[in-house]
Amino acid sequence: MATAGSSLPARPGRKNATGYETGSNDTGLMAIFTETWSGKFRGHDVRQRRIELLNRQYTFIGPCAPEALLDAPNAEARFAADGYMPYWAEFWPASLLLMDAVASWAPPGPGAPPVKVLELGCGLGAVSVVLGSLGYRVFASDYDGDALAFTMENARINGVTTIEPLLIDWREAYPRLRVDRIVAGEVLYECRNAEPVAQFVSRHLSPTGFALICDRNRSTADDFPDVARRFGMQVEVSAVERGDPDGGRPISGRLFRLELRKL
Q: Is 242 domain-assigned?
């Protein structure tokens, strides 16, 4: 059980564990937390969040009390084994920044070959669902089976049928996996993640594709561009910002755009 003095570390800082109430920005994104979802999913009491993006409303569910996952019977053992933490259960602010970014992509044209996009560390799957609704073939990947279950339930709720769940550990290689684009939000919350994330992208990205990694300006990600360059990638960094739905400071971050270096 996670208690004061437990070996489990503090989670990365976030503004509000209960999520967003209202908010909007220039892309037409609005987020509203609504009532508790009736019943349970995967044994969790859940709540729903509705998001309006580009004239479409999306509904997502997630655990009511993500902190309670630290008290799960196997939490200490999984952390001791490899540092596992149940970060997947949060609606992270960076997901809004990443949704802004992918919403600007032109949908694949009629009759065009499918564009394959992999979300690394998909969590509750909000970004994957938006991508799927735009017509992309999406591989939603995470290290936790519950995350993939919530992602596929969120896809079902929103009528999205182009998502395939993949149980993926970004520290491993998958020789048969090659995609046109890779997206990820808040995967650089620990310094130790920079190298495996960069290596994963370099191994699985198409030579003509690109990746977008979204970060909330964490110091743990400051060296990521240099790490990615060591794995043969070109890196562009751009600042992103949107209004805080709670009325506080704007949500700011950065996008790392990665491409394989041309020989």
A: yes
